Amino acid sequence: MQGLTGKVVVITGGAGGIGRATAEVLAEAGARVVITDIDVAAGTQAVEALRAATGGELRFEPLDVADPTAVTALSDTLEADGWPVHGLMANAGIAPTSPALDYSDELWSRTIDINLNGVFWCCRAFGRRMVERGAGAIVVTSSIAGLGVVSPETHAAYGATKAAVAHLAELLGVEWASSGVRVNAVAPGYTATPILERIQAESPDTFDEWVSRTPLGRLNTPHEIANTAAFLLSDQASGITATVLRADGGYGAR
What we know:
This protein is of the alpha/beta class. Helix content is 47%, strand content 16%. The chain starts with 7 loop residues before the first strand and ends in a 7-residue tail after the last strand.
């Protein structure tokens, strides 16, 4: 991955899954990585483990992305500490499952606060610094559930927010292109995270249906998604902005 050495990249929701795998890939490429997460224990453990594994420069910062004041404060703190942010992966999100008629107001609003508002707060706060410097790259995490209807899951709030952040990447990618800031989205397919591994154990029929609908015939690994995100953050993707890149094993083309 060219052009990442010494660059500061913030990853929200970086304590586990795709976020943690991306932190590892970026640290191995020489980036200075800031893992943020609402789970302090998991975030601290992730940084310690990745430092030992990669020898890279990493730090953990607790963050609730649904709090715009906290997001702006972190941007200011990193700038003051000599960690000017060059890249952002707005990855934090939740995926509650519920029939639409049973969604509570609180669950609907919380999903939007984290998955959509939180992505925008982070893009705005860290993107402001990038626009001021005239350079930067942002990747937001969408989903195949944001590009089409997936089944048999019932998660209207998740799908709606992931569709919104995919379009947000296109909007910001166009708006900030003249400022030297690229914004793209990665849309993972079914990925072997702890959540899906639990579903495999609890609902093997559902898991088998997901795999059967994926042309590659398997789940993606977190590192496959991480490599995609790292590519979009790197100079190797210097000509790519306002794009939603599917990393779904062919699911969306079936």
